[in-house]
């Protein structure tokens, strides 16, 4: 029993830092922006490349656990995460930092599915497995909450580099315990390797697409490069689609996307990812640039809402699922997201009214995300056979992170085209991100008669 508890702790620590690393960066971004003398549109690439590489390689990370071994992939991914955390912290240039963040996303794509696979294979009794997965998931919620609070405090008093350095001692301990206590892999050597080429093509497409979107305002100056990238995207997309249709074991089984629920769940999850990370990015700029709060004070302001998110996930969401359909909870969640964006926009218009900002944070990070994500995931996998629901859930998570990366790039494009060059954020970027949430809400309302249960 002690060995199992250690394994659960090791796996939960991994998911904790995966979630922490996305959240913790947001309040440190303005400090990075100052050091590297970059505008708000450029600094967002530190987050964009992480989530795009994470999303692009997540499915292949899960499949490698089955072919190479969950322990091997976990140790490799955690080691890479450790190395890239050190590299990001010691980076002297923005290009170095962005490169290490991209590799960190690749590492997270290996750690996340292998950690979950380790838990499901260690805890085989159903009640014990469900309890372990619940604990594992709660560490993700705690990681996001701590990231929003700790990011500002650590960056203010120790420097932004330490948001990466704090990973090092804990991940080192996790690696030692994982090597010691996790069972050796038993791998079927005759099983073919998964389609790594398609995973690389998918990541290449979404990264290049984000780059093209981001640099559209300067098209006349860089048209040759951008057109070359567009041709590459089209070619990669053609090859990717052909491979998925012809290979016996495709990266993403396109036949899964047949039901209205699966298409709706995944599509709106893309919009959710685009909205949520863009919201956090703008919120950090509003609190620090507009309202002149230190990163530490901004973190303390957000911390209670992180606790609220945990309690909503733990107690409110299960109660909602008992009383409402999956579709109804999704509508409620997207409604909260849209309300949060409109409240943030109103607070900026009314001279940064603090009660409106607090209500906005409560709607989005305090409750909306906790309601949205599980309901959309449930919607995406409910029509999928039980034997393929793990793969379908992984595809849904991939949809979220791809949406997050593309959303940040679209936000950057809008800020370049529609806002003046200034350090402060006006209401227009917030209005832009509301158009990520609005189509999702409308879509759910339109399909509610077709998905009635």
UniProtKB/TrEMBL annotation:
Superkingdom of source: Bacteria
Membrane-related topology note: Multi-pass membrane protein
SUPFAM superfamilies on file: MFS general substrate transporter (SSF103473)
Location in or out of the cell: Membrane
Domain Major facilitator superfamily (MFS) profile: 7-452
PANTHER family according to UniProt: MAJOR FACILITATOR SUPERFAMILY MULTIDRUG TRANSPORTER MFSC
Name of the protein described by the UniProt record: Major facilitator superfamily (MFS) profile domain-containing protein
């Amino acid at each position: 029993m002690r060995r199992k508890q250690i394994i659960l702790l090791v796996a939960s620590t991994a998911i904790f830092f995966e979630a922490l690393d996305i959240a913790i960066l947001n309040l440190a971004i303005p400090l990075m922006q100052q050091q590297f003398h970059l505008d708000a549109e450029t600094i967002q690439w530190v987050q964009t490349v992480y989530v795009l590489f994470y999303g692009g390689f997540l499915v292949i990370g899960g499949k490698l656990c089955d072919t190479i071994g969950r322990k091997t992939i976990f140790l490799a991914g955690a080691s890479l995460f450790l190395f890239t955390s050190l590299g990001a912290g010691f980076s002297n240039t923005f290009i170095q930092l962005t490169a290490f963040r991209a590799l960190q996303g690749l590492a997270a794509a290996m750690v996340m599915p292998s950690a979950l696979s380790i838990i499901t294979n260690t805890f085989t009794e159903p009640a014990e497995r469900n309890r372990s997965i619940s604990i594992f998931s709660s560490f993700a919620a705690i990681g996001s909450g701590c990231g929003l609070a700790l990011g500002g405090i650590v960056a203010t008093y120790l420097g932004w580099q330490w948001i990466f350095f704090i990973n090092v001692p804990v991940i080192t301990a996790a690696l030692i315990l994982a090597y010691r206590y996790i069972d050796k892999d038993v791998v079927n050597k005759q099983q073919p390797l998964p389609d790594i080429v398609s995973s690389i093509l998918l990541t290449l497409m979404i990264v290049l697409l984000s780059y093209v979107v981001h640099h559209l305002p300067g098209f006349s100056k860089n048209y040759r490069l951008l057109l070359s990238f567009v041709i590459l995207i089209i070619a990669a997309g053609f090859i990717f689609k052909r491979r998925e249709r012809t290979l016996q074991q495709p990266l993403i089984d396109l036949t899964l996307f047949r039901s209205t629920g699966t298409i709706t769940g995944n599509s709106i999850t893309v919009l959710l990812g685009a909205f949520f990370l863009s919201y956090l990015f703008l919120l950090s700029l509003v609190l620090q640039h507009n309202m002149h709060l230190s990163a530490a004070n901004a973190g303390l302001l957000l911390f209670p809402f992180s606790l609220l998110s945990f309690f909503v996930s733990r107690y409110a969401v299960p109660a909602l699922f008992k009383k409402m359909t999956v579709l109804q909870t999704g509508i409620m969640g997207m409604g909260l997201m849209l309300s949060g964006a409109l409240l943030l926009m109103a607070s900026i218009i009314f001279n940064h009214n603090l009660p409106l900002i607090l209500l906005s944070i409560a709607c989005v990070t305090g409750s909306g995300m906790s309601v949205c994500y599980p309901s959309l995931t449930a919607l995406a996998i409910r029509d999928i056979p039980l034997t393929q629901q793990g793969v379908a859930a992984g595809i849904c998570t991939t949809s979220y992170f791809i949406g997050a990366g593309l959303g940040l790039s679209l936000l950057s494009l809008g800020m370049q085209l529609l806002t003046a060059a200034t350090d402060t954020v006006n209401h227009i970027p917030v209005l832009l991100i509301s158009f990520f949430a609005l189509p999702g809400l409308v879509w759910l309302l339109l399909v509610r008669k077709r998905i009635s249960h």
